[in-house]
Amino acid sequence: MAESTTGTVLVLGAGSAMARGIAAAFASHGHALYLAGRDLEELERIASDLRVRTGVDVDFGQFDALDTQSHAGFVQAVLAEVGALAGVVWAVGYMPAQEQALADFGEVQRIIDTNFTAAVSMLDVCSAHLEKESGGFLAVISSVAGDRGRQSNYYYGSAKGALTLYLQGLRNRLHSSGVRVLTIKPGFVDTAMTWGLPGLFLVASPEQVGRAVVRAVQRRRDVLYVPWFWRYIMLIIRHIPERVFKRLKL
Amino acid sequence: MRSRRMSLSGWGRFPVQECEVWRPERYHDLMLREGAMTLRGQGRSYGDAALNENGNVVLNARVNRFIEFSPDTGLLRTEPGVTLEEIVSVCLPHGWFLPVTPGTKYVSIGGCVAADVHGKNHFRDGSFGAAVQAFELLTADGARLSCTRDNNSELFFATLGGMGLTGVIGEVTLQLRRVESAWMKVRQKKSPDLERVFADLADGDPEDEYRVAWIDCLARGRHLGRSVTMSARHARMDDLSGTRRGQPLVVAPRRKRTLPFNFPGWALNSLSIGVFNHLYYAREGARGGPSVSDYDRYFYPLDAIAHWNRMYGKRGFVQYQCVLPSDTAFDGMREILERLSRSRRPSFLAVLKRLGEESGGLLSFPMPGYTLALDLPLRGRGLLPLLDELDRIVIEKGGRVYLAKDARLSAEAFRHMYPRLDDWLAIKGRIDPDNRFTSSLARRLGLEPPHG
Ligand SMILES: Cc1cc2nc3c(=O)[nH]c(=O)nc-3n(C[C@H](O)[C@H](O)[C@H](O)COP(=O)(O)OP(=O)(O)OC[C@H]3O[C@@H](n4cnc5c(N)ncnc54)[C@H](O)[C@@H]3O)c2cc1C
Q1: Which residue from B62, B187, B197, B320 has the least number of CB within 10 angstroms?
Q2: In what order do the strands lie in the sheet with B16-22?
Q3: CB of B107 closer than 6 A to ligand 1?
Q4: What whole-number distance in Å separates Cα of residue B158 and Cα of residue B367?
Q5: What is the average pLDDT score of chain B?
Q6: Contact, B214 vs B302, CB < 8 A?
Q7: What pTM value is reported for the model?
Q8: Helix axes A154-174, A105-112, angle to 10 degrees
């Protein structure tokens, strides 16, 4: 069954390029949007852009992922404004250089809080609401970095890995309620996070990611690798024996 | 924000330079916090206007949001990175088209203001700037200035055609033009010599909105300047029939092909181009009455082939575009074409247009007269000296060379071509005394604040 085109999609962390690509893809399928993020001026720009390009209704509001106390109230306020939610996209992420984290535990905490704790807090609130409504979806950006710990990126990777496991459990719990959970695992996507990093190849555009996410939600998929071949790259990487893996410079 | 070291070039693929490239995603990050910088849109200027050798280049591609569009009035406000392609695809279904468009739609609106681009309707509607109602300028001191013809008007006219050297062109407000359909009514006609082309461009059918001539620049003697002159206007409902009439604002998207590799150097020589020109002149010129074409094929024939610049081989090419004022244009163009056909340096694409009134932009290219654009592959020695010779003719006739296409003009020649340069420099000195906005072109031509 195709996803209905009614109801608003709430996009959390809407200021990033990947979120913009996903929001645009939902809008082009006729979904109204609520964009939530930190930088109100930017959100306003993105909102008007999507309105002009697609003609859908786009609301926006300020949301701080790290302020978990505010999450429940924020979702209540959004619901009061838009009525019903078709689904929720979680696109909040934080990835500083690994050296920065190694030098400063504050950074490590920020990585874990943003990529894991904040996600769990918000997704708990949202899933409780969708469960009550007996439908809808959660589309959550995790990362291929969460599939295996590597020396170059294991703080970020372990936080995303924890998020992936949380989503497995959530999917399992919500299955009978009709709420679907999609774990999105981007490989290299052409965003501010990857711009300027050496050695990137076969990078997907945010627009391609957006289209793939909408397709995966419509087809009720559980896990989406974008670009698709990362599924196979990670399959290989996950299966390298630890004895060998620990010697690799990855 | 992180930057990336990259080899960049303009569309002509000459010169190629190492630059430190930034790609902000947020509007206010278009202005780098420190250091000198060059803005870059889609890199469709031909030479070094959007290059900054060993310095910062800031891409506006991700800062491309539509802010406001009124389907009632056709007034559009966007961020600078929005491309003309995006504008057409969003606004044409509402019956609004670009007031002025260059020969490719893959350019940013910021780049169009910076170069004050012109189209095939310049003789009638003026340049891009004529339709620009306002823009925001992010200046070196961190201000965001709203510029219109009345408000900050000095900056408005220094920025229009100012090649990005007065500040970041931010949001642009543009008045679109009403059209009844997405189709064009086109007529083609042979103009057997230079005299006839000039006449055909100057006084064709008063209904024509667009006019341009394709010149066979290998033709010599009494054939010198022989051309196919193309005129067109936006088709109206009664020009259309059948399904087109039912859905006048919709055209099917074109298949896009890619030129997969650089052509070898010998592929384009005077013989192959000569044969092509001959056939083209015979075939296109012989077409009967008017035909109806979709806007995409009419305005952007080359856009159907991605990377068509590879046709000129690895070493790239330069485009030479000059304008000569009405009273000297005929003699001047004849000299230039004679010089060119004598040199046996073939230009694959040679286009002649008539230009109308100036826009007021201090460094804007268009002036009332005729403009000739030539694509010349960089091969052998001798090309650059030949172009220097053409510069001398242009200066003598009171004309100028187009900066958005230029890669090799000298500062000396430039100064003779742009009489309002000193006014511009005075404004530059005031608005950007520390020369934060620069480019390889700016250094080459001395577009820098006095005593800076
Ligand atoms: C096939 C083809 C056909 C063309 N036909 C025509 C034509 O018919 N008429 C015509 O006039 N031109 C024509 N051009 C030239 C083209 O329209 C101009 O060079 C235009 O400026 C390119 O826009 P861009 O976005 O690619 O800008 P770029 O090439 O990236 O930059 C051009 C200039 O604009 C500046 N700039 C870009 N963005 C900003 C900004 N936000 N703020 C400040 N400065 C900025 C750059 O610094 C640079 O000086 C043609 C080009 C091609 C490739």
Answers
A1: B187
A2: B3-9, B16-22, B56-59, B37-40
A3: yes
A4: 16
A5: 92
A6: no
A7: 0.95
A8: 20
Which chain B residues have a beta carbon less than 8 Å from that of A197? 2
- In angstroms, the CA A246 to CA B234 distance is 67
- Report chain A residues whose CB lies below 8 A from the CB of B62: 17
Beta bridge partners of B58: B22, B39
Sheet strand arrangement including A85-90: A58-62, A32-37, A8-12, A85-90, A137-141, A180-186, A223-226
Cβ(B12) – ligand 1 distance below 6 Å: no
Q: Is B68 on the interface with A (CB under 8 A)?
A: yes
Taking the centre of ligand 1 as the mean of its atom positions, its distance from the CA of residue B111, in whole angstroms, is 4
Instruction: Work out the average pLDDT over A10-35.
Output: 97
Contact B104, B82 (CB under 8 A): no
What percent of chain A stands above pLDDT 70? 98
Q: pLDDT of A172-209, one tens digit each?
A: 999 999 999 999 999 989 998 888 887 777 789 999 99
Q: Per the structure block, which two tokens stand in for B40?
A: 């870059």
Q: Which among B439, B446, B443 has a CA at the least distance from the CA of B163?
A: B439
- Exposed e or buried b for every residue in B155-182, given b needs 16+ CB within 10 A? bbbbbbbbbbbbbbbbbbbbebbebebb
pLDDT band at A246 (very low <50, low <70, confident <90, very high): very high
Q: What percent of chain B has pLDDT over 90?
A: 77
Phi and psi at residue B264, in whole multiples of 5°?
-70, 155
Q: At what angle do helices A40-54 and A17-28 cross, to 10 degrees?
A: 30
The token pair at B393 is 């003719």
CA B447 to chain centre: 20
Q: Is B25 part of the contact surface with chain A (CB cutoff 8 Å)?
A: yes
Q: How many residues does this entry show for chain A?
A: 250
